[in-house]
Amino acid sequence: MMRERPLRVALLGCGVVGSEVARIMTTHTDDLTARIGAPVELAGIAVRRTGRVRAGVPQELITTDATALVKRGDIDVVVEVIGGVEPARSLITAAFEHGASVVSANKALLAQDGAALHAAAEARGVDLYYEAAVAGAIPLIRPLRESLAGDKVNRVLGIVNGTTNFILDRMDSSGAGYSEALDEATALGYAEADPTADVEGFDAAAKAAILAGIAFHTRVRLDDVHREGMTEVTAADFASAKQMGCTIKLLAICERAADGRSVTARVHPAMIPLSHPLASVREAYNAVFVEADAAGQLMFYGPGAGGSPTASAVLGDLVAVCRNKLAASTGPGESAYTRLPVSPMGEVVTRYHISLDVADKPGVLAQVATVFAEHGVSIDTVRQQGKDGDASLVVVTHRATDAALSDTVRALRRLDTVRGVASMMRVEGE
Amino acid sequence: MMRERPLRVALLGCGVVGSEVARIMTTHTDDLTARIGAPVELAGIAVRRTGRVRAGVPQELITTDATALVKRGDIDVVVEVIGGVEPARSLITAAFEHGASVVSANKALLAQDGAALHAAAEARGVDLYYEAAVAGAIPLIRPLRESLAGDKVNRVLGIVNGTTNFILDRMDSSGAGYSEALDEATALGYAEADPTADVEGFDAAAKAAILAGIAFHTRVRLDDVHREGMTEVTAADFASAKQMGCTIKLLAICERAADGRSVTARVHPAMIPLSHPLASVREAYNAVFVEADAAGQLMFYGPGAGGSPTASAVLGDLVAVCRNKLAASTGPGESAYTRLPVSPMGEVVTRYHISLDVADKPGVLAQVATVFAEHGVSIDTVRQQGKDGDASLVVVTHRATDAALSDTVRALRRLDTVRGVASMMRVEGE
Q1: CATH number for the domain including A266?
Q2: What is the biggest distance separating any 2 CA atoms in chain A, rounded to whole angstroms?
Q3: Is-cis flag, bond preceding B87, omega within 30?
Q4: Could you tell me if A229 and A105 lie in one domain?
């Protein structure tokens, strides 16, 4: 009982991901048709410049007029893999206005304007799906939004950026510094020419905003996410981490506060114990832990980026959205009913690892310990190493608010006997 | 725009899982209502005996007449957590006939009668969901059925039974024998009084059938799954595994044949390298690898059983099924369009680890090697250890068909110089 007219798909963007989507759609047509329950057809592909279209992409479908393609009137689904805020936002909005559902891989746009886009989709009775926006092929949005819909998620903790994980993994295994590891990542194609979005944590922060919103059924925007990049992580930090039985990862962490009345979302480098499963996530892989009341601790692991894995996520969404079209229904939309506010970083409860360069004379440890005590921060371990009149002091704290911890560090810097704070890093995953 | 009449849910079974479903439904009503988009109400709970109903379960909802509950006429969703084939099958069928969707955790029933149940659901335009039937809280059915709907899955490999993983983990870490480790598992509540379904691999085989069917879009029944239990795994096997840098796990393996024309599904103990992520899955945890053309290698990890994790999966399905009811639509049903046949175990391509007790005299190795060669099985490594006129020979093969490998073992047993085959185990995950 297949319908005659095929579902028509407009593809916006034909780079690494888009060309793979086009390739699979044109070579696996029978499988897609069987799984959707109706034939599906690639109706047009919008690109910025026609000159650079890849081999295997049907040239007759190429257009540079994305707006005209979206407004054609016979498009059932728009697949947006351009990235960036504009023109993606205008094109997606136009797609909704013309009754098309949208599958997007655009984390930046969703982290900034997710609520408005969801509202626009809902107003037109169409779908907005974006599994590919977070962690490539790893199913995360759907498990959080659907599989855990009857549970209460308390924490999402993960590695959601492959570029930075590749760099940190190289620094860990080879002892290389940041620039050297970045050069290698660039040479191998893991880092872009301008790596800012990755290494400064913008990409991970956008994903954290999306995950936190879905996990806690509230609105979390990119601006709500505390973000620290990993460009200042040094070989010395890795050496310190090793002494503690840890490694360093750039983590995205979304948490429900202990009293349940607010949430936090943050991205920063952190030490995690080597025994933690995230410590063994190598190269450009991603992995995300989800902790929920009833389900307990779940982990999802896989390739977090790349043309094929991202295309897999896009096509999974495409099948779902097409099925919904056929059933004249829509999938779950935005769920933000808890309206939980996002607390600032100062309220996050965590642990610090602090390396201090201090004068090697009696009483220094007592002075330092007093500063911690005055700020209500309790010390877990101290390690002291002397050399030539100077000494280093490595302090690992118990859990305290990030505000108390950073106030402590500020006060330490003011001590005469403290020559400098060599490094300071949060410790997670224990 | 909430509808007035709540969605009514009948719960069949109120043991470890059912009581947790009832508890969450009655304590998290507001969350469920918000996520479904309409109020949901527990309308009745069918139990076998009223005497043993747990604390916290609303006593006024208890009935011993499951059939009458299902046929009441105002039930929107039936949640079946009784387990076993009958009366579950009749009750589910009656639920469909009365227009109710069904959420089930019943792997045995689904592995045996999945196709008929799907057809019955489809005929009535209702849903049959069963995320909880495989690997407890770990989202697997939904990712395979929906997230990977645009991809081609080639392999599913995993630990899907917590009881046997607990036993094998204990044997590995403590050097205990099977019976001793089983006793510990029983004492700690990880194994049932009659552990047959777990230790003989029936439970894992049912899950393998369900996963293979969904992964390859074909029909795979319990009888199609090659099944070997783990009761004969010895401390000596673990010692051999360690010498190879391996451990032993009971694995469920579903594969598409290299030529793409058939699939296989099997459950048996196997050696896997310690470097493989499945090797570090401890205690009663489950973990499943999924390999797909575009997505690459994905892993899903979490608690594979237990009341709360299973209830989480059941409630996720309940929310989905209720949403579908409200939208007057249904989720994806059975997808078996590829009609790929299931090949017998003999056609599986794998590797063997074989320990032989042989006479310690010249020429034995040559004899043994000849038998392998005659069966077209190529040897990867041989290790020979002599003691008091006897010797042991450990052979690890390259990949060959299971038929060729077992023919080889049969021929080896017939050699005069081979006193016995001490153990024989497949090697996977390389």
Answers
A1: 3.30.360.10
A2: 87
A3: yes
A4: no
CATH of the domain at A94: 3.40.50.720
Q: Residue B207 catalytic?
A: yes
At how many degrees (to 10) do helices A202-216 and A107-123 cross?
40
Count the domains in chain B: 3
CATH of residue A373: 3.30.70.260
In chain B, which residues have their Cβ closer than 8 Å to the Cβ of A11?
none
**Alpha-carbon gap, residue B213 to A345, rounded angstroms:** 47
CB contact under 8 A, A139 and B142: yes
pLDDT averaged over chain A?
Answer: 94
Question: Is A318 inside a domain boundary?
Answer: yes
- The whole-number pLDDT of residue B53 equals 72
Contacts of B330 in chain A (CB under 8 A): 327
Same-domain pairing of A283 and A162: yes
Mean pLDDT (whole number) for B327-341: 95
Among the partner residues B34, B149, B296, nearest to A337 by beta-carbon distance: B34
Query: Annotated catalytic residue: which of B207, B325, B361, B387?
Result: B207
- Picking from B131, B137, B329, the nearest residue to A327 by CB comes out as B329
Tens digits of residue pLDDT in A238-251: 999 998 899 999 99
pLDDT attached to residue B1? 46
Mean pLDDT of B7-32: 96
Same domain, A159 and A125: no
pLDDT attached to residue B159: 98
* Predicted ipTM beyond 0.90: yes
- Please report which confidence band the pLDDT of residue A1 belongs to, taking 50, 70 and 90 as the band edges: very low
d(CA A356, CA A395): 8
CA distance A303 to chain B (A): 7
Query: Is the predicted pLDDT of residue B256 greater than 70, yes or no?
Result: yes
What residues of chain B, 26 to 45, have a C-beta less than 8 Å from chain A?
A: 28, 31-32, 34-35
Please tell me whether residues B202 and B245 are part of one structural domain: yes
| pLDDT tens digits along B109-156 | 999 999 999 999 999 999 999 999 999 899 999 999 999 999 999 999
Question: Smallest Cα–Cα separation from B122: which of B341, B314, B335, B326?
Answer: B335
For residue B113, the distance in angstroms to the closest alpha carbon of chain A comes to: 22
Residues B30 and B159 placed together within one structural domain of the fold = no
Residue A9 above 90 pLDDT?
yes
Task: Say whether both B255 and B387 belong to one domain.
Answer: no
Instruction: Select from B268, B303, B338 the last residue of a domain.
Output: B303
Same domain, A114 and A233: no
Say if the Cβ atoms of A319 and B137 lie within 8 Å: no
Residue A257 in domain: yes
Indicate whether A103 belongs to any domain.
yes
Per-residue tokens: A383: 């390690």
Q: Is residue A337 part of a domain?
A: no
> pLDDT tens digit string along A174-189?
999 999 999 999 999 9
Q: What does the pLDDT average to over B379-385?
A: 90
Same domain, B262 and B365: no
- Domain span at residue A377? 345-427
**Which residue of chain B is at minimal alpha-carbon distance from A145?**
B316
Can you tell me the distance from the alpha carbon of A84 to that of A107, in angstroms, rounded to the nearest whole number? 8
Q: Residue B20: its chain A contacts at CB < 8 A?
A: 294
